[in-house]
Amino acid sequence: MKKTWVWFWSVFIVVLGGFGFVYWNMWQDSPQREGEKAKTAFSTFTTRWQYGQFSNMYEQLSTKTKQQITKEQFTQRYQNIYEGIEAHNISVEPLYNGPVQPGEDGTIKLHYRLSMDTFVDPISFTGKATLVKEKQGEGEGWYISWNPSFLLPDMQDGDKVRASTIPPKRGEILDRAGRRLATDRVVVDVGVNPAEWSQLTPAGRKQVSDILRLASNEVAATVQAQSSKKTSFIRIATLSDDDERIFQLTGTKGIVLQKKQVRYYPYKEALAHLIGYTGSISAEEYEKKKAEGYRSSDKIGKTGLEQMYEKRLKGSAGGRITIVNADGMDKKIVGERAAKNGDTLKLTIDAELQKQIYGELKKEAGAAAAIQPKTGEVLALVSSPAYDPNDFVLGMSTDKWNELNGNPQKPMLNRFAHSFAPGSTFKPITAAIGLDMGAITPDEEKDIDGLHWQKDSSWGNYEVTRVSDHRAPVNLQKALVYSDNIYFAQAALSIGEDNFMQKAKEFGFHESIPIPFPIEKSTLTNGEQMKNEIQLADSGYGQGEVTMTPLHLALAYSAFVNDGNMIYPFLFQEEKHDPYWKTGVMSKESAKLVQNDLLQVMEDSKGTGRGARVAGHRIAGKTGTAELKQKKGELGQENGWYAAFSVDDPKLLLVMMVEDVRGRGGSHVLDSKVKRIFTQALP
Questions:
Q1: From residue 153, how far is each of 140, 149, 322 by CA, in Å?
Q2: What Rg value do the Cα atoms of the chain yield, rounded?
Q3: Residue of 172, 137, 155, 22 lying closest to 81 (CA atoms)
Q4: Are 681 and 619 within 8 A, CB to CB?
Q5: What's the CATH code of the domain at 207?
Q6: Could you tell me which residues are beta bridge partners of residue 465?
Q7: Rounded mean pLDDT, 533-546
Q8: Comparison of pLDDT for 191 and 273, the residue scoring more
Q9: Is the pLDDT of residue 12 over 50?
Q10: For labelling alongside 447, which of 149, 166, 483, 499 has CA 20 to 30 A away?
Q11: Is residue 1 part of a domain?
Q12: 584 and 449 share one domain
């Protein structure tokens, strides 16, 4: 009986196994199993696609697809498309809804969802892939019938993808009245067609060079350097669209003229050092900026406000991804983002006042700063000589650059951002400190005889020298009117080093001026303290190691207008801040007293500032001549200074400095310049 059961179960298992084997083979060839195989193949394909593995994707393409495109062509084409549109964060998700099985034609249709970020807005769409079962190599499986619409909707064979940048309009820089200080204009690129250029005679080429005012060898070198590239246009110069040379070159064989828009600076040299200029981005700048969306063909701020406010002025580029047909016609916009134009910067600068001041200085090496002393608006920041920033935009010849760079007056140097010894224009600060400390009184007279003075024999052969001996006792007003060095040297010694340093620092020495522009700090000493009494005495009349920038000196003088408070400067109309940078740098009484004395400097018949008086207006001011020398006994360079402000209706406070005035009248070189500026500025 037991053997019977063993036999029964053995037969049953064999029969069941037979049925199982038959069923397994039937299931392997069933539509459901084929659907699973196709899904597995497609999942592998989409994963490779997501990671940009086009070479591996190619192995899964149908035979018919492979006959139409090589592996190298497939890989290169689609890598280039993705790189061109800056595709990243690519996601390709197969969509399987219910059972999958072959259709009547034997193919399987599978859907997928593709999403990716691009250099414009993200792109997302649902596509459909066709899989065919075929034998490739030694095996049989499901392969993908590829077509270009897999990558982008509606893309067909022969179509191309065009990725174009929509550049933003760079923000303008305006003055207080809305005058354009930095804007755009149309210019003309002058170029040569190398094929036609080579056929010109040497005389013909020279004629073109002469018209453009370029050296023949410079033009030849430019053309030769670019001729290896397959191009029909090599730029050799850029001219403004109204330049008469354009008409001379029109129709010249080999010459090609192309219009374009560039940055333009209407006030040219007058505002060069403040506004700066733009230029082509360098390789080093591009490496630093490319993560911010910059391209190697972009322009970028190189100096001045153009550089400092590059991010705000530039704006952000837009872009467009377009499918283009075989004829080069736009077929469909796949993705688009509008450009965001740069911000407009509105300054407190008065461009016409700036232009006038520069006009007064342009033949000199010097600097100036002008402010509205009651509000702190910076009206002008001038450095002379300067350069035309448009020359950098249009492209500067080697000769022009050498001329500019070799100019002994250093037009590339921004003088208003540098500090210089202020000379006698510092004396009113010493006066205010002395009055507040009780070291001097307005009516106290000092008997000073002769042109030279020293405290005692401990000074050796060092003496303080004044311009003239007035042979009379000197009080504070006379000392300012006559600009008496000895009086203020003695005043500094009476104040004492510690008090002098402490009170003078309250004016903002060794601090950055709170405006958004890099300006040197003014200094009282190069070290922590004075070297000796001689340095203290010299500091009292603006020599020693005292240095000031024109703007800082103007801010210090604003305390004489604002009851002892230094106004807070601002350069942008949008700025919000406290009214004063420094409060109580001198008492209200001292401020008023020194202001009256400075009025006499201009109005007294013997005052050093009388040459700049303006009829019908009361102007207070102080002149100064600072001598720069390495050692006693030598003649150093002399710089002339002028600081002046209108009294009855304080609208303008002006500080000017001119270098190298020795033998030309010292600070009186500035008399007529200051007078003309106030005459025009005051109603």
A1: 30, 5, 11
A2: 40
A3: 155
A4: no
A5: 3.90.1310
A6: 452
A7: 95
A8: 273
A9: no
A10: 499
A11: no
A12: yes
Mark whether 372 and 492 lie in a shared domain. yes
Burial class (CB in 10 A: 0-12, 13-18, 19+), 597: buried
* Count of structural domains within the chain: 3
- Give mean pLDDT, residues 396-412: 88
The CA distance from 586 to 581, in Å, is 13
91 a catalytic residue? no
| 542 shares its domain with 655 | yes
What are 656's two structure tokens?
């000017």
Q: Locate 541 and state its tokens.
A: 């009349």
Asked whether residue 629 carries a pLDDT value surpassing 80, the answer given is no
**CATH number of the structural domain spanning residue 36:** 3.10.450.100
Which of 7-21, 251-265, 331-345, 485-499 is predicted with the least confidence, judged by mean pLDDT?
7-21
CB-CB contact of 370 with 652 (8 Å): yes
Three-state SS annotation for 143-156? EEECCHHHCCCCCC
Burial of 641-659, coded b for 16+ CB within 10 Å and e otherwise, reads bbbbbbbeebbbbbbbbbb
- Domain residues for the domain of 435 are 353-394+418-681
Verify that 98 and 178 share a domain, yes or no. no
Catalytic member of 424, 483, 539, 646: 424
In a 13 Å sphere around the CA of 97, the CA atoms on its Cβ side amount to 6
List the structure tokens of 482.
Answer: 């006559």
**Per-residue pLDDT reduced to its tens digit, 160-214:** 999 988 889 999 999 999 999 999 999 998 888 888 887 888 888 888 888 888 8
Assess whether 257 and 338 both reside in one domain: yes
Let me know: does 583 contact 388? Beta carbons within 8 Å: no
Q: Which of 43, 58, 150, 22 is closest to 100 using CA atoms? A: 43
Of 45 and 628, the structure prediction assigns the larger pLDDT to 45
